[in-house]
Each structure stands twice: as C-alpha cells, then as structure tokens.
Amino acid sequence: METKKLCFASDYMEGAHPEILRRLLETNLEKTAGYGLDEYSESARAKIRAACAAPEAEIHFLAGGTQANAVVIGALLRPWQGVIAAETGHIAAHEAGAIECSGHKVLPIRQHHGKIAAADVRRCVDDWRRDGNRDHIVMPGMVYLSQPTEYGTLYSLAELEDINRACREAGIPLYLDGARLACALGCPANDATLPDIARLCDAFYIGGTKCGALFGEAVVFPKPGTAPHFFTVTKQRGALLAKGRIAGVQFDALFTDGLYAEAGRSAVAAADRIRAALAEKGYRQAVPSPTNQIFLSLDPDQAAALSQKVEMSFWENAPDGRVVMRIATSWATTPADVDALIAAL
Amino acid sequence: METKKLCFASDYMEGAHPEILRRLLETNLEKTAGYGLDEYSESARAKIRAACAAPEAEIHFLAGGTQANAVVIGALLRPWQGVIAAETGHIAAHEAGAIECSGHKVLPIRQHHGKIAAADVRRCVDDWRRDGNRDHIVMPGMVYLSQPTEYGTLYSLAELEDINRACREAGIPLYLDGARLACALGCPANDATLPDIARLCDAFYIGGTKCGALFGEAVVFPKPGTAPHFFTVTKQRGALLAKGRIAGVQFDALFTDGLYAEAGRSAVAAADRIRAALAEKGYRQAVPSPTNQIFLSLDPDQAAALSQKVEMSFWENAPDGRVVMRIATSWATTPADVDALIAAL
Amino acid sequence: METKKLCFASDYMEGAHPEILRRLLETNLEKTAGYGLDEYSESARAKIRAACAAPEAEIHFLAGGTQANAVVIGALLRPWQGVIAAETGHIAAHEAGAIECSGHKVLPIRQHHGKIAAADVRRCVDDWRRDGNRDHIVMPGMVYLSQPTEYGTLYSLAELEDINRACREAGIPLYLDGARLACALGCPANDATLPDIARLCDAFYIGGTKCGALFGEAVVFPKPGTAPHFFTVTKQRGALLAKGRIAGVQFDALFTDGLYAEAGRSAVAAADRIRAALAEKGYRQAVPSPTNQIFLSLDPDQAAALSQKVEMSFWENAPDGRVVMRIATSWATTPADVDALIAAL
Amino acid sequence: METKKLCFASDYMEGAHPEILRRLLETNLEKTAGYGLDEYSESARAKIRAACAAPEAEIHFLAGGTQANAVVIGALLRPWQGVIAAETGHIAAHEAGAIECSGHKVLPIRQHHGKIAAADVRRCVDDWRRDGNRDHIVMPGMVYLSQPTEYGTLYSLAELEDINRACREAGIPLYLDGARLACALGCPANDATLPDIARLCDAFYIGGTKCGALFGEAVVFPKPGTAPHFFTVTKQRGALLAKGRIAGVQFDALFTDGLYAEAGRSAVAAADRIRAALAEKGYRQAVPSPTNQIFLSLDPDQAAALSQKVEMSFWENAPDGRVVMRIATSWATTPADVDALIAAL
After folding, report:
1. I need a labelling partner for D112 at 20 to 30 A (CA). Which of A310, B104, C75, D283 fits?
2. pLDDT of C267-319, one tens digit each?
3. Over pLDDT 70: what percentage of chain D?
4. Which CATH class for the B18-254 domain?
5. For the purposes of burial, counting CB atoms within 10 Å of the CB of D1, is it exposed (0-12), middle (13-18) or buried (19 or more)?
6. Are D194 and D166 in contact (CB under 8 A)?
C-alpha cells in the first residue's frame, strides 16, 4: 500500500523494532500462562527491576498510555482527591476526559514549555490547605508529569528532585508518564536516569508503544503494594491483557542489551540532525525540545507549502497567527529519511 | 523456557497464528496513520463487512474482551439502564465488576448450560414494565449474551432470532460477545452465520485474542451511528490503540481466505476428538459443549490425578462435591497434542 | 385538599412529629453556621452519641436513605470491592442502581423474610477466597443489612452478633440501614438496642424521614475516622445540606426525651392492633413482620375490593398468583385510623 | 443558644420564611403520596409554570444546589461531553469535584466578575470543532452559568440572549444555576425575568435553600422530556425526596403572592443600604455586585478589626495582598441588623 514519502507525523507509525518481532516469532508457539503470569513477563520484570535499580518493584504491563494513566491515577487517588498536572499535560488536554470519566478532577497548574515547577505544586497544595473552604474543594492528591513532556522537553534531575520534595512535603505520590521515556533516556541533554526516576516517583510507566513495541506500557511501582489489588483494578478497567506474555516478550526484548535506550538514542539523533538543518535554514521552533519531537512555528503559507512535501502533525494555532506543526522521529527513522527531509526544507 | 507437556488450560496460551505474524513482519516498517485510520484497518473492515454481509457496518478494533464489553455496554446504555445477562455470563461473573465500575447494573437472569432464553428476557422486561415502582428500579436497557457461551454451548439460529424478537418488542439492543466466535462459526453444530449475527444483533464483537490473534477484538455495529462518538468513548476508556494498524493487520489476515473460521474449525475438531475419547473412557461432562471447551465433572481424586498429567483450568466446585475442570483447545492444538492427551486419560 | 379516608400506603405520608415542627418554629430566626457545623447539629450529635453509648462517634446528617446508603457504601468500599446484601435488600432492588452508579457491584445473597444469615456471609466470602480466579472477581468488601428489613422483620441481637463475627473474620465492615430503626427500637420483639448496634456495626444510619422527621438521616460511624474525608465525600455526592441545622434541630428533638423510640413504639402498637384484627378475620400475612409494616397476601379479587376502601402499597405479584399489598403505620397513625381500618377489613 | 450579634456570613443562616413554616404546620398531618407525586408539589409546579410562562415545563424538587447541578448536568451530558463554565463557577471551584465524580469534565473559560461571555462560549466550541484532534478531546456539551453569579453579579437579558444564541449555534443546551435567583429577580438592576430565563434556558433551577426555604431547589425543564427518565436519575443519585411534599409545600408558598421575588427584593434592599454606607465610609468593593452579596476588599488589619464586630465569610486572599470578605444579607435581615452593621463600619 502507498504511503506518503516523507512521513514525520508521529512516532507510532511503524510496527515494532525488528528484534521484538524476532522474539515474538521465536516464542510464538510456546504455551504459557495468561494474564502476565508467564515466564516472559517475569523475565521482563526482572530486567526492568535491574534497569531501575528497584529490586522490589511491582510491574504490570498494560496496552496503552491513556489506559495506563487512567488506571494508575484511579488506583492511587481516593474519591475526594484530584491530580495536579500541567494545563497542557496529556491527561488534562488530550485524553478525552479519561481521568474525569473515572471520577477525578485534573487540577491544572501553569506550565512552561510543557513543564511544571515544584513551586507551583507547593502553591497548589498550600492554597488548598489554607483555604477556609477546603472541605468543599477537591484535595490535591497526587502529581502527574511526563518525561519528556507534551512538548518534548525534559525535566532535569534537580527539577525532579524538587518536585519529589514538594510531593513528600505534601504527603502525596508523584507519578511520571513515560510514554516516550526512551527518548528522554536516550537524549544527550538528559541527566535523570531510570534509577533516579524509580527513586523519585511512586509510580511511573515505561512507554512501549512509542518506543519500539507493537503496543504496551510497563507500569512500575517501585515500592510493592503502592496500589493494592492493582491486578483486579486493571481487570475491572478492561486493561488486563489475556495474552499478557505478548507484552512480556516485547519488554523482555526492549530491556535486553539496552535496546530500549538505544531506540530512544537513535530517534533523538535523527531529530538532532533535523534541528541543526532547521536552524541553519532559519526555521523557528515553538519550543526548545531536545528529544524526538520538533515543534515548528510556521506562518500559514509556509505551513501549507511544507505540508505538501512532508507529513507533519498539526499541533495548534498559536495566538500570534502562526501555526505549530510537529515533526517526530522514531527508532525506525533512517538516515535516508532525514536526508530527504533536510533536502525538502 | 520449560512448559508442562500436556497443556490444555486455555485457548490463549500461544502467540498468534503464523499467517498473522507473517503479515506483521511483512508490513512492519511501513508508516501508517495511527488510531485505526490506516489502510490495513480499513482493509480489515471491508473484509469483515463482506463476511458479515453488512456493507454499512461501523467497526472498531479494541484490545481485549472485558474492555470491549465494558466500552460497548457503557456506550449503549443510558444512565438509568442496566444490562440483562445470564447469571453465569462473563460480565456478570468474571470481569471484576467492570460493568458496575462504569455505572451500570448487570441484571442477571437464569441460564441453562450458560444460555439464556427469550422467554426470560421477556419476563425480565415485563416485570419491570408492570412494576408499580418501576421508576425506582434499574430499567432493562439491553441484552448481553455470548456465542459460544461461558460454558462453550451455542445458541441456535432460531434461539437467536427469538431473543432478537424479544429485544425488538422491548425496544432494546442486543449485544453479542464473540470472544470465541470462531469456535462457534467453525462448529459443525452451529447454524448461525456471521451474516445472521450481523442481522440479529445491534452490536457484537468478533474475538481475536482467543481465536488466533496476539490480541484484539473487532467491535461491529451493523448499523453505523448505533453508538455515537464511539471513537471518543474508546479513547476516554483507555481502549483506543495508538498503533491501531497492528490490530488492523491481524484482522485483515484473519478475514483473508477464511482464516478466522478455519482457526475455529481446527480447534473444535481437536476438541471433538477429545470428547469422543472421553466418552469412550467413561468421563462425565458437566455441560454438553460442542465447541473448543470441554467441562469435565471429576471426583476430587480423579481431578488431582489427571491434573498431574494434564494442565487444565479449575472451573468450579460443583454442589454435588465433584470438581469441574476445563480442557480447552485452540487453533494451535496439534494432532500430536490430542493424541498425547487421549493417551493420558 | 382531599385525601383518601383510610390511608395506610406508607410511613412517609405526613409531615413531621409536632414536637419537631415546634422546635423548628422556635429556633427559626436564629442565625447559625451552615453545613452541620451549628450548635443544634452538635447538640443532636451529643444526644445520639449518648443514646448509642458511643462517645467518640462521628455523625453526619444527610437528606435521605438512598443517598445515605450510596454515600456510605461508596466511602467504605475500595474500587475493587462490592457490597454483600440480601437479594431483596433495598440497595439491591429499589434504589435504581445507586450503588452501581457509584461504581460498585451489589453481591446478592439469599434471604429469608428479608434477612440474611451469617453463614451465607461466610460462604460468600469463602467462595471468593477459595476461587482460583478471585483476582478476576469483585471482592466482597462489606456487608449491608437493614433493621427492620425490607419486609419489616428484625434481626435478633444474637443474629447481629453472628453477622458481626462473620465480618470480623472476613476483615470487612458491617453497615446497617436504619431507615425505620425507630420501629425496630420500639418493637416489643426487639432485643438489639442502639448501643448494641453501635457496638456491632462499623457504620449505620438512624432514619429520620420515615420516623417522624420532615427529612434527614443520621449517619453514625461509632469509631471516628472510619470513612476519611466523609464531609467532602458528602459534598461531592450532593448530600451536604447547606442549612444543616434543619436536620440538626430535628434529630435534636428526636433524641430528646425518647421521642425517637416513642415514634416507633406508637407506630408498632398501631400495627399490632391491625395484625390482631387481621388474624381474627382470617387474613393471611406474606411475612411475619413484627414492626410497622404488614404484608398481606391477598387473592386478586380480595386485593381489588380492599383497595377500594384502604389505600395500601402494591408490593409484588407472588408466584402463587396472589398479590402482596403493604399496610404501613407511622407515628401519626391515630387510634381512630386503626379503628376505621379494622372496621373496613 | 448564643450567636454572634452581627452576623452576615451567609444567606443560609436562618430557617425558613415564616409563611413557609406556617404552611408546613397547617398541612402537617395531611397524608399525601410520596416522591413529589402529591397535590402540594403539583400545585407548586402549576404556580412555577405560570410564573415562568412555561405551561409545559417539567419540574422536579431536589434538596440542594450541588446536588441539582450534578444531577442535571449528569442527565444532560453524554459520556463524551463536558460542561463549559466560568473558571470561578460554583461547579468548577466549590463543589468538591461533584461533576467529575459523575464522570464529566468541567471546561473552564475566563470570567469577568464571575460572568462568562457568549464570545468565549463560541471560541470554546469553535476551538474544539476546528481541532484536528477533536475526537481525542472532551466535547463541549452544554453551558453552565449562574444568575446571580458566584460574585453576585447579574447577566443582563441581552447577555443571556447572546449566550443562548451561542448555545443554539453550537447545538448544546444552556443551564442556569439559580441558587440565589430570588436575589436576581428582586434586584432593581435586573432585566431578565423568569419567563426570559425559561425561554432562554434548556434547564435551570430556582433556588429555595438560599431564598427562604428550609431546603429545596426546583429544577425546571421548560420543554418536557429534555432529560429522559429524570425521576429515576434523581433516585439513582440519591436526590429523590421520599417526603417530596415538604419541598412542594415550600415552593407552593414561595410562589404564592410573589413571596419568592419579595424574599429577594428584601435581601437586596438591605444590601443596597449597606453598600451605600460602605461607599460613604470609603470601603472598597472587590466586585461591583448589585445583589445580596457584597465582596469587600480589605487590608489584613482592617479585615481582622472588622471581623471582631461582624461575622463575615472569608472569600479569598487577593494577589494584591488584600483580603476579600463577603457580607451577605437574606430575606431575614432586619433594618435593625443593617443599622447595627452600618454603625459598626
């Protein structure tokens, strides 16, 4: 079937990393237990625990990111609580109300290039605490952030540590959405490792769908028992995979020989080459993202012209009349793809 | 990794039918749109429409069965309505309260070998209608059944038509859970075809996970628009697959050259051979299932002894002190597997 | 306005006990804090604590019974849990799915004359515990019963103690719906006092609406903190009364000089006279209720004839072809009302 | 019991208008049907229909405002929709997440003195419509506003007509929260009558709790059938009053001889006298409210001093370091109360 030549619309346009397919093929006719109770899922868990330096971690494989967010947030919040998130956070803006559908308010706070600041978390919690009407108001019950953010930016280790402190002070858990975590881990500018994340977060997920897998996200609770009866909760939310081993085999492959970080590294390297060319040719970026997503600020004519040659994602109409378009690379982006794009710019 | 020799615990213990893996491999590096808007998903939809003789059908690919049930039922019911189901129906008994979690009551009615009768549907609706307090009671808002049922039994075409009539009379939709639909379609005893199902049901799903796919269920609304904004509803429930094409490719393969029905046929044929051997050796079946599941009624000692040799599924402790164990075959069950099982009996 | 002469359809047909209205009138123009933080609510709480011999009890005033049930059950259950109740229990049958609407399954168990048995609670919990698939099944998370029951019958103290033990063994809370608790407390056959109930239950409510108040139910948690942030939870569920003092004044009156139990006593005494007359005249009772509700089993002609003279409540069509009609008395039923009814029989 | 002398903390500190209590007393021992099916509720409905010039209107009596909002909004929205509201709207800020608890997102838009503008409603809807990702985003499904607003300000008739047009263009219903509607109707500055509101809104509620009743809000659907099965939905949400007639009698009294508007007029007149005195004495108002609420902007010392003499409501800490305190009058505020307050200023 035909596809557009220069296709940079998203990082989930291909299938899986060939190594993952190879392993699925290799193990295809083995018989294993269902629901993630199989040996491959166990092996993947062991490797993820090792990569996170979190030997006790409880790990569940879910199918997708919105699902992982809704199930984890629903499992960690009590009914009277809401979740603090950037006003541009994925759960606040682009999940069709999945969090509210499970009964909880998203408490939006301001953001800068997609990132929230510990000071704003503290202010949100303090405002609630000092409000004479606080018993009539949703209690901030956890903090959600994503790494990289919705705009491809990264939290530094220091920033994560500060947000972690704000959460500890408030007595609420910190949850990190790692839909594209490989692209953070594989980014030269990144200084927050998987063990850092496991040390600083109460829950997070390691994204598979956008980082080389056919589908699948690994939800990690560094301290076991953080979300009681999580298996049943995933079942209840329709998030339990009968053939859990298909996710297990994939994560087992991703966490063998550093494939996961490598998938991110390769995507970011491709984006870096594109960024350099864009700068050289005078294109303007809407956000200084260092990872695999590039947000171009184009005037409408420019946007239309470039869209003839390159499939990008429409992001938003900026208040200044310009259009923001997203270019995304993935583990599958080849040097030839990048060359062609640069030629088209 | 090691697995038990004779493994008949379920029909989701292997990966995917080799033809599916072949197609995933073949298409792996193509770039397509996300969220099921790709050419493979479209091709799969066209083939399913043809197989169902439902040229207008609206089709969505979801990841799993509990998810499909909860999303479809939640989309079809209004807040004041509940869903009629066999007291042993999957949604009533084995989905961890997924339907209630989305706000609706399951209205259990009696069953025989897992099947409900049109007369009982009519009685349930009439009881509500004639109840002076009906405005204080959950209104029966749809009917759920599965084909094959939880006990592997089949509705005849006449029975489905009668239940359809009961639903029409009541003005409520009929929904069919086809987690193992291939095993109905591939069963010699079956007389209800896919076009029959599409004609008689307002919604149904064609199960992939237990019928040859890695994962995935195809939700079919024979009349488009039956569930408005269903795309957004699936997103909100965490059921929208980013790489929707992975499900699309699988269903495209399943509905090419009759693979889907063949997968069922082969599983049922294996089960038939086992059933014949069981009968010959004097084993008792708890339910006369003609499909790929066999429910053995064993005394506890017998159950323990057989479990040494064969991995089965514990089903239930019967009131008569006997134990019900399930033997399940799949598209992947080989003649050698069956021979070995028969030898072990 | 005209009303039928002999009106025994329910126990919520009149306004409030005159003493309550007197107190509302007397305090009407005083200014107090809202949301139940006023002196009258505090005074009512103190009197209820004393009456319950539960000096630490946390007490909230809600508007109605279905609301109280849904809010308390929603507050005590975790997402993966359901509530055990008699299949005829109010929450199972007559609350329009309020419990399911808040995300939880009602787990029905068999009943006798509206009562559940400790043995069946134990069986329900054990069945879940011993089920190999229990992680796929709703966990029994609390027990609901009502005193008197839906059929006006009473649990003896011994029965309540046994159910309490079953709950302790299971580690789950016991909740008692006391919509008509005054009629239990005021019944000669009753041997379970308010202090017994406070000692044996983790939560219960003392019904006002059907026991002399304009509206209002007092939710009691004998141990404070049983349901964290309950104030906010009631607000979130729309159950927080802005003028909480209106409920407070009413319960303050009901728990002054024994008015609450007296309201029940008087209703039951009226019902006892009716029961004696019914027995004498050969009427058959469907259930041997000793409280303020009488369930007559009538043949359809008899039902129609009696309905000409007496307004009763239709209850149900019995399987034997007879009709069950309910006669209810209240604190407001006068000896003359009873005389007239007896004459009409 | 003792209360502070000068008490202006809220407009729900007293009981009911004496005329209401008189009618409750007068009708107390009559027997009527439950659940709002009685003659008094019918009479109140007839009078409200007349006052609204909406002869077909469907009217339900609920207990409180948060409840009315949650039940009506939940009944009008479909699962994929959210409700547009001022970011300061009661449902957005002060209802403990009641709307989210019922599964829907509040879509906040900017406000000026508590009011939203039709242009912003149009922008919100257009943004959704033109968003390429709109199927991943909550659809704006209705508009919520309150009259008076959270800050006591009023929409003019022209503004309401403009917002109505915006809703018609978008094809979504307009809902008006009239918790203090009497204070709008009784305000000299108001030009939107009850018939205007009934003509322009798809649903609204006429507040009783804050306008003279013990409790109760009259939900009005000018076109019957706007919210199907609303009776059952209120039952399911715990909002159905068993003794519905108690609300009926109150609204019957409120809509006899213009009592409702008079209750508002008298409260606003008292507030007007206070406003004049405040202006004269150089106090600053945070918001130019013309109704029964006055929002004073005080420096912290001033706030502390005045609080010694007058019980006000803390509203918020303003960004400029000043404190906003609310003074509220009610139908029960006497000229002597006002004199004493003015003397204390």
Report:
1. D283
2. 999 999 999 999 999 999 999 999 999 999 999 999 999 999 999 999 988 88
3. 99
4. alpha beta
5. exposed
6. no
D162-181 burial by CB neighbour count: b if 16+ within 10 A, else e? bbbebbeebebbbbbbbbbb
Sequence-distant (≥ 6) Cβ neighbours of residue C162 within 8 angstroms: C117, C118
* B285: phi then psi, degrees, rounded to nearest 5: -100, 135
Report the DSSP pairing between strands B203-207 and B174-178: parallel
Q: What is the pLDDT of residue B132?
A: 85
Residue of D nearest to B138 (CA): D232
Q: How many CA atoms lie within 13 A of D211 on its CB side?
A: 34
Taking CB atoms within 8 Å and a gap of at least 24, the contacts of D56-59 are D56/D222, D56/D223, D56/D224, D57/D198, D57/D220, D57/D221, D57/D222, D57/D223, D57/D224, D58/D220, D58/D221, D58/D223, D58/D224, D58/D225, D58/D226, D58/D230, D59/D218, D59/D219, D59/D220, D59/D221
Helices (H), C133-243: 157-170, 181-185, 194-200, 230-236
Residues of D in contact with B74 (CB under 8 A): 79
d(CA D330, CA C21): 22
- Cβ pair D233:B103 closer than 8 A: no
Q: Among A9, A15, A97, whose Cβ lies nearest the Cβ of B29? A: A15
Residues in chain B with pLDDT values less than 70: 1-5
Task: Please name the residue of chain A whose CA is at the shortest distance from the CA of residue D315.
Answer: A132
Architecture of domain A19-254: 3-Layer(aba) Sandwich (3.40)
Residues on chain D touching C332 (C-beta within 8 angstroms):
29, 31
- Chain A residues whose CB is inside 8 A of the B9 CB are 33
CATH code of domain C6-13+263-344: 3.90.1150.10
| Cβ–Cβ under 8 Å, residues B168 and B69 | no
The answer to whether the Cβ–Cβ distance between D78 and B135 falls below 8 Å is no
Helix (H, G, I), strand (E, B) or coil at A71: helix
- Helix or strand or coil: residue A302? helix
The fold adopted by the segment(s) D7-13+261-344 is: Aspartate Aminotransferase, domain 1 (3.90.1150)
pLDDT of the residue at D40: 98
Residue D93 and residue A132: Cβ atoms within 8 Å? no
Lowest mean pLDDT, pick from B25-29, C245-249, D130-134: D130-134
Give contacts of C69 with chain D, Cβ < 8 Å. Answer: 238
Question: For the structural domain made of B6-13+260-344, what CATH number should be given?
Answer: 3.90.1150.10
User: Which residues in B lie closer than 8 A to residue C82 (C-beta atoms)?
Assistant: 97, 100
The set of chains that have 3 or more CB pairs under 8 A with B is A, C, D
Question: Taking CA atoms, what residue in D is nearest to A78?
Answer: D101
pTM of the predicted model, to two decimals?
0.97
Where do runs of H (alpha helix) occur along A77-203?
Answer: 90-93, 98-101, 118-130, 157-170, 181-185, 194-200
Q: How confident is the model at residue C4, as a pLDDT? A: 54
Query: CATH assignment of A6-13+259-344, given 3.30.160.250, 3.40.50.2300, 3.90.1150.10, 3.40.50.1000?
Result: 3.90.1150.10
- Choice between D193 and D4, residue whose per-residue pLDDT is larger: D193
